Amino acid sequence: MEHKFFTEKLRLENEAEQRITQLAERAHNEAIVQLDDASRSVFKENIRLNEALSYHMKEVEELRRVTVTLAEENHSLALHKETCELMMRDSVSQLKEQREKVSELKGKVVVLEQALARMAGEFERETREVQQQVLVSTESGRIEMEKMQKVLAMREREMNRVKRLARGIVEQRTEMEKFFQEALLEVKQEIHASRRQYKQAALQMYQQQMSMARIGQQDYPRIRTFNKSHHSTNCIYTEQEDAEKWADLNHTKVDISELTWEQKEKVLRLLFAKMNGIKT
């Protein structure tokens, strides 16, 4: 679009120069044919040429203003693109870390299942040994064998119950982790959308205030920056970072609906860390 405006600007300037040349040549020819009316014709033609030149100069100036505006918009879009790329890299890093944690938990589940299988094998072996001893024992031994079988049956039922509980705990933990990961992803998307919308609205308001100040309808606003800068005292990213601050999160009773998206993300991360036994 910017190249199109530059092309149009050059075309208008060339047309103005050609028009002036044509008018000068025609005036010269008419002066030769009509010498008596030469002075009056030249005066009128000069007036018309000055008006035409003034009109074309205004168009050229307008094209210059449009060019400056497009350059500013292009710079703003470049900043927005850089911000989006940084956010995407952050999200990919977090997703990779979560996948590694899930893989680690799956490894622990495999180890637990192997341990349970070994215990079951040992119970079966002990059962066979007891049964073999009972077969060669006396009547008292048979009674003792029955008692032992009851104990073994009880232990086997307890072992099966432990297996079911362990499997249920693992499944519930997996579902909870999936829920927290989906919730964190959704909150992260909401944060990105909210910050993008806030930045666009703030930029539009700042540009509107600057335009009104230029025409004298109000005072100039404080200088405000819309890209990350450590030296700026009025940066939009500082306001967005303030939304994440929250002192004494562990001992404060709050209504979840009153939290910002950044604070909701902090709450989810704290719960996820506690669930995994990580000190915060």
UniProtKB/TrEMBL annotation:
Residues 88-115 form a coiled coil. Pfam families: DUF4515 (PF14988). It comes from the Eukaryota. The keyword Coiled coil applies. Residues 2-80 form the DUF4515 domain. The keyword Coiled coil applies. Its main location: cytoplasm. InterPro entries: DUF4515. It is found in: Cytoplasm, Cytoskeleton, Cilium basal body. Keywords: Cell projection, Cilium, Coiled coil, Cytoplasm, Cytoskeleton. Belongs to the BBOF1 family. This is Basal body-orientation factor 1. It comes from Albula glossodonta. The lineage of its organism: Eukaryota, Metazoa, Chordata, Craniata, Vertebrata.
